[in-house]
UniProtKB/TrEMBL annotation:
<dbReference type="Pfam" id="PF01523">
    <property type="entry name" value="PmbA_TldD_1st"/>
</dbReference>
<dbReference type="InterPro" id="IPR045569">
    <property type="entry name" value="Metalloprtase-TldD/E_C"/>
</dbReference>
<dbReference type="InterPro" id="IPR047657">
    <property type="entry name" value="PmbA"/>
</dbReference>
<dbReference type="Pfam" id="PF19290">
    <property type="entry name" value="PmbA_TldD_2nd"/>
</dbReference>
<protein>
    <submittedName>
        <fullName>TldE protein, part of TldE/TldD proteolytic complex</fullName>
    </submittedName>
</protein>
<dbReference type="GO" id="GO:0008237">
    <property type="term" value="F:metallopeptidase activity"/>
</dbReference>
<feature type="domain" description="Metalloprotease TldD/E central">
    <location>
        <begin position="113"/>
        <end position="216"/>
    </location>
</feature>
<dbReference type="InterPro" id="IPR002510">
    <property type="entry name" value="Metalloprtase-TldD/E_N"/>
</dbReference>
<dbReference type="Pfam" id="PF19289">
    <property type="entry name" value="PmbA_TldD_3rd"/>
</dbReference>
<dbReference type="InterPro" id="IPR036059">
    <property type="entry name" value="TldD/PmbA_sf"/>
</dbReference>
<dbReference type="InterPro" id="IPR035068">
    <property type="entry name" value="TldD/PmbA_N"/>
</dbReference>
<dbReference type="GO" id="GO:0006508">
    <property type="term" value="P:proteolysis"/>
</dbReference>
<feature type="domain" description="Metalloprotease TldD/E C-terminal">
    <location>
        <begin position="223"/>
        <end position="446"/>
    </location>
</feature>
<dbReference type="InterPro" id="IPR045570">
    <property type="entry name" value="Metalloprtase-TldD/E_cen_dom"/>
</dbReference>
<dbReference type="GO" id="GO:0005829">
    <property type="term" value="C:cytosol"/>
</dbReference>
<feature type="domain" description="Metalloprotease TldD/E N-terminal">
    <location>
        <begin position="23"/>
        <end position="84"/>
    </location>
</feature>
Amino acid sequence: MKIDTDLAEDILKKAIRNGAALAEVFMLSARSLSVEVKSREIDALETSMDFGYSLRVIKNQHLGFSYSTEPKDWQRVVDDAIESSLFTGEDPCLDIAKPAACPEIDTYDGAIAAISEEDAIDRVRQIEDAALRRDQRITKVRKASGSFAEAEILILNSRGLKAGYRATSASAQIMVVAEDGHDAQMGWGYESNRFLGGVDFEMAGREAADRALRLLRARKIKTGKGSVLLDSSVATEFLSVLASSFSSENVQKGKSLLIGRKGEQVVSEKINIVDNGLMKGAVGSRPFDAEGTPSLEKRLIREGRLMGYLYNIYTAGKDNTASTANAVRHGIHGVPVVGISNLYLEGASDKFIYGHDELTGQIDRGLLVTEAMGIHTANPITGEFSIGVTGLWIEKGEVKHPVKEAAISGNILEFFANIAGVSRNLRFYGKIGAPDILIEGVDISG
């Protein structure tokens, strides 16, 4: 079902008539096509269509909320939202967005919206074919898949805000197995973009094959301290652990590593960390956030120094500051919370940015980490972690052999404080991106 502006306006008017001081309607219509291929045959094909809307009301500074997927239920939704406000506490920080000019950003690709099942299947077959052609030691494809999605969003509120946009996204994923004698290793590949032309389906297959192949005949290493070069995908996983600490919601709840540290040097002066909702092609880009606040670019870390946190309207009110356009919603089923748009790490200046081979050449004794297991177990409040890793052992700037059954441990902030340099190849995995990152003085266990 398409977005119905008249329905949204009717909901808004009734909410105000029924006593809401402020009201906001969020409406979402989405369609997706997912394909899985195995041995060039279709393993799964799924099309989904979703529609829904939610209503937030503020009555006597009490929050009310309700939602539905049925247009005919709109009057009940209003009644339920008003009634639910009777059971929440008074909160002076509750508010909704004021109308404001939003930046122009292209988030919609007609090629994704119009893609046929046949075209989608063919593109996923390209992923599998590229992996299998890479080397005869690629013996199995566990899963090759692609997803193609479009969505339309409308936000209408009683302050006069009326904002909407359409967005698309496509992704390619694959998991393969490489075998050599009795040894078997897995590798994966991933690509995503808001535009079909920004997704290299064959590259995903080749990358998965290369990841698996370079780990064949892996050996154990001795325990000790050394340098660690994080592949961009692993660097992104580490950044995802730190990401939650930038949330003002977590700061206010005492669940952040960065409480009370604004203005302080918290990581290496060689890096910046940025959240940018305006990056072309990135899947987290949009003209405004989930409350209607215009998107912008925020430097959270500048030359290692913490510049600020991410806010939505509510958390900004609690800190007497402005929203940073970081309200997100997980569908229609809940009120906005704080989240990232496109979060990434970069070198603070050109003198800290190198080619991949240049970074490798700086390592006297250390490990290029290509896969990390269990990063989700890192403590987001203390920053402590101990995780299993695989990769390539490096001595005197040269790759010696693949490594298995190794582990690295430490503290996230100390980890990022010891960054010696980054590469030029910034890559995004979903909404988080990073280059390769060289870190010194890491505890490496065999």
